[in-house]
Amino acid sequence: MSHLIPPAIQPYVLPVLWGVVIVAVLPLLAGYIVLLERKVMADMQARLGPMRVGPHGLLQPIADAVKLLLKEDVIPQNADRFMFWVAPLISVTMALVAYSAMPFGPSFQVADLNVGLLFILAVSSLGIYGIVLGGWASNSHYSLLGALRSAAQLVSYETAAGLGLVSGLLFAGSLSMRDIVQAQKDQGVWFVFWVPIGFFIYLVGSIAETNRAPFDLPEAESELVAGYMTEYSGFRWSLYFLAEYANMIIVAGVAATLFLGGWLRPFPSFKEQFPGTSIEFMDLLPALVFFALAAYCLRLAPRQPVGVQKLVMAMVAGLCGVLAAAMAAAAAFAPEAVRQGVFGGFWFMAKVMLYLYAFLWIRFTFPRYRFDQLMRLGWRFLIPLALVNVIGVGVAIVLREQWGWKHPEGTLILTTLATLGVAVWLASSGEKPGAAPAAEGE
Amino acid sequence: MADSRTNGGSLGRPSHVETTVLGADEIILNMGPQHPSTHGVLRVKLKLDGERVVDSECIIGYLHRGVEKIAEHRSYQQFAPYVDRMDYVAAVSNGLGYCEAVEKLLGAEAPPRARVVRTILTELQRIASHLLWLGTHALDIGALTPVFYCFREREEILKIFEKYCGARLTTHAFRIGGLQYETYDGFEAEVKRFCDDFAHKIDEYETLLTENRIWVGRTKGVGILSAQDAIALGVTGPVLRASGVKWDVRKAMPYAAYDQYAFEIPTRPTGDTYDRYLVRMEEMRQSRRICLQAAENIPSGPIMAKVGKVLKPPPGEVYHSIEAPKGELGYYIVSDGTTQPYRVRVRPPSFINLQAFDRMARGSLVADVVAIIGTIDIVLGEVDR
Amino acid sequence: MAPVPLDNELVQRLKARFAEAVREATLDRKQAIVQVAVGKLRDISQYCRDTEKFDMLVDLTAVDWPKREKRFDVILNLYSFAKNERLRLKAHAGDGETVPSVCDVWPAANWLERECYDMFGVVFEGHPDLKRILLPEEWQGHPLRKDYDILKQDEAWVRENLGIDSGQ
Questions:
Q1: From start to end of C65-122, where are the E strands?
Q2: pTM for the full model?
């Protein structure tokens, strides 16, 4: 097949293909993550969530998309029209550009930059422009306040998150996303087990970076209505929304790559444990998952209230069944490269979904931080903790490599405990929670 | 209490823009009357220095329906349903206060069975009102989940009300002289079952919020009202008790059947939002206790005293108050000997408690204003009548 | 059931201190009511708060008796935490007569007096910011007065804003 394509453009074909796939699939994926969020929210709140549009609300994202596209385009009177138009574009573009360095599988990556991780972080930071410009261009008190708060929050927590990443990078030895996963494969263990504190810091930092609860004051409904998004409606708003969920997937992807082993399978290879078997049974796990999904949907299909919903449910079951069959076939018959690609993608998405589930869970459990408490948490707790963590990990690695310390795990445990001690001290010291510090002359 | 200008604020008069220490202008921020967190049609004008509230003014009256004027043109029994619509979240309490006030005016007394059933329903209503408060207060502060759990419990109580008198919200459950409806079969059993379930449910809701760092951070030290200020401002109810004053009309001047039951009055020392939260949680537990004691042992007998169909109280006046979930709800009724009251004055706890808002909000941040409005627990129907 | 004259220690102390300003003391349905001269209302309130320990102003309102010369009854309901006792102070005020404000005795009176002014038109002297509270600023008339006819108001509004005659 490759002889059909002229050699000049051959290196570009695959990346462009992946790029197109990402841009095409992402809005749909983001929409379904929103549906997942609503269903999980409902489950935690003892109710059902969207049920009407499609069986179990499965067509809800499509209905929402259609509604947003058909809405009237309102621009506030004295708004700066060009900025108002460009701001959401900046947010979305930066979010999408960051996907170019994200590895969804061993061969599914638009560009394997040697500074991939740094590139992703840098481009995500540029997305802040979209927020600030949007708030300013709306010509409204509330929007501007929200935008500035949002920008301050993002910048602060990016520092902390970045330092959390650094502690993981010390083990990887490279900024290239592919090399990071390879390092985890070579060392035989996911980095989250080496630096759980780094992972925790990155988790908190990434929640704050994507403006999610408990750090969603700029978007809080009950406070400033919707912050920088107040004046946006219809399609422009959906661009901001898409940017937010795309950012969520990016931070989840970075966490999955750096800490959770990327596309690596969580279970040791069956073939290696029991040499002589021809099928890699671990590879059948994805097929099993889709098969279980298909069976569940099939069981639910006759119980739907309306005929159309029954049909849609059956179609979903069919789709899952086809995927299950494809996975099983790939496990049994496909060449190594294809198998790695398919299952690598599956495990990567599974880890991303796990990370996003943590996001959702945290959102519905905790109340919101007030802005000054949020900034205090970032600067006075998270950044010092991240710095101490990096130093601790550095010390452990130096001891292991330079001085051949015999028990690298032991050292790491010690430094982890020491960092935890520092964390406890940082948390308990400092000002009392709650009362904002009194102003002078009160 | 010398500076009475601190109440109500002076934002109504046209003023020049004042400059602060740093030379920045002070902004006037208007919250409401349409706002997700003002619990009804309340308008709050805040004068801000950056993020800090320097002065505030509450503008009310958007829900004023002239209930007191209407009372002068209705007979005593005809006015009873109107009373539910003031504090519509706790309608049964309103009804209890009114019926008892008119009974005092008449010199009649409800029979023991009626008094006990009234107590049970009023305490259930107190739990329902506090549950709604908890859900909405948590929602304002950002916890999205407790509101659904609280409404699920409230649903059970409203089902009991519906079975008893046919209505969930504006119940008109009591009549002047006693009760109209006999309790339905299984009333005691359902009340007991609710109380048994409720015990561990309320512990569940506490685990979500009470020890949560973020919740404590958002509520501790916010909106402090000292006991002296509270008494001077006429504040009553859980707000007063959270400021350290151990006073409850049910213990000070018992009415209905409250003198027969053992219960505690929770108080807290500081008077901040966190303390008010704890006081209301504990009040729910105590209400549950009263319900259980009352349901054990409802005396048999008539449910209505002999007051006659046409009520013409002898001329005079009376003031009777009860401990409603929001505070001391009082009825001052003046009779001129005819079938229609000459004057009905409702002492609205939410209206008087809302006056303390300015004292509580001064010096706090804008994000705390929402928490403070929530913690006073106002219902605009009662504020405006 | 009819009100009976009251002459307990509290009333005696009040009479001793304020002589003729304390006009009448009755017990109606076991509740103590002391009628005082309107000019001395603030001084008596201060005395009640400081010496008699009535530290909470529970309610402040008015009643309209149009056939009387001094048509308004200004009512103050007081409560003492220490003694667990209630007291009602009543003062007769005429239409147009100013009543001394008790805002600096109990700050709770601020909004209560505003409501009284709004509903009855009773002017409180010494109130920091006497303006309407429940009704809009530009409202004419005082609704809780007995000569305020709701039907006439409705007809006037309909005629003015809709240009037709009200069908009531």
A1: 72-80, 85-93, 98-100
A2: 0.87
